[in-house]
Specification:
138 residues, alpha/beta, Rossmann fold, five-stranded parallel sheet, 5 strands, globular
Length: 138
């Protein structure tokens, strides 16, 4: 994650789904001076772990933690906010909504990364138990 931040010269990042803060820590450490990372998560318990490690690494001043449900937080982001990079690792059933809310805020040639995009075949259309044979099998 840190390598991607440095490679694209990201100075403004949003993360949806922080948990214990490992990804945010990697990204925050790679931010240039003055860079900012907004972390969105609804768990006070798990983000307390993240805050502890952010402080140990000396990056807590680069991170803006916003606690609550992701969709309302994303809907209420300041209109002027633009991001170089977005990382989403949250409620998989809400990925479509996160994408629609984040995409207009990502700069041209910016990145949006989704964790576990292929989680439990959720991306695939329903499959038949007896798929048709392929032409090569006929």
């Amino acid at each position: 994650m840190g390598l991607l931040v440095a490679a694209i010269g990201a100075g403004s990042i949003i993360e949806v789904g922080t948990f214990t803060g490992y990804s945010s820590l990697c990204m925050a450490r790679a931010l240039p001076k003055g860079g900012r990372l907004i972390c969105v998560d609804e768990s006070e318990k798990w983000t307390a772990v993240a805050r502890k490690y952010w402080a140990k690494a000396g990056v807590q001043d680069r991170i803006d933690l916003r606690l609550g449900q992701a969709i309302p937080i994303l809907e209420l982001l300041e209109p002027s906010l633009k991001f170089d990079l977005a990382f989403v690792d949250a409620q998989k059933t809400e990925y479509d909504a996160y994408y629609e809310l984040i995409l207009p805020r990502v700069r041209k040639n910016g990145l949006i990364l989704f964790d576990n995009m292929l989680w439990a075949d959720a991306w695939a259309p329903a499959r038949s138990k007896n798929p048709p044979e392929s032409p090569s099998m006929l």
